[in-house]
Amino acid sequence: xxxxENYRYTKDHEWLxxxxxxxxxxxxxxxxxxxxxxxxIEVPTVGEELEKGESFGTIEAVKxxxxxxxxxxxxxxEFNDDLEAxxxxxxxxxxxxxxxxxxxxxNPDEVNELMDAAAYExxxxx
Length: 126
Fold this sequence. Notes:
This protein is of the alpha+beta class. The chain is built from 4 helices and 9 strands.
């Protein structure tokens, strides 16, 4: 299982990578492995302000559809357009090319409530 050291993680297997006042969000390597081959990603929330824990979209895999949740509160400012034609990027490179949305953080203190890499590794291993 691949885990990025400087990222933060949720119990729903989303990751957050903070860059200044913005952050990228995607699903972890563990999550994409559990989902299987991803065929479609829908994010109808670009431009919306969402609270921590709210769903911002769905991931459709061959066998299932899963909601994706906000790890922190923020405004969804961008969707990774590359995923429209190539949703499998989430399977191939979940932390770099397979990011799903970019947000403007509403409450940066919420980042500290998320698991660091070591805590997530222990959580995901169970």
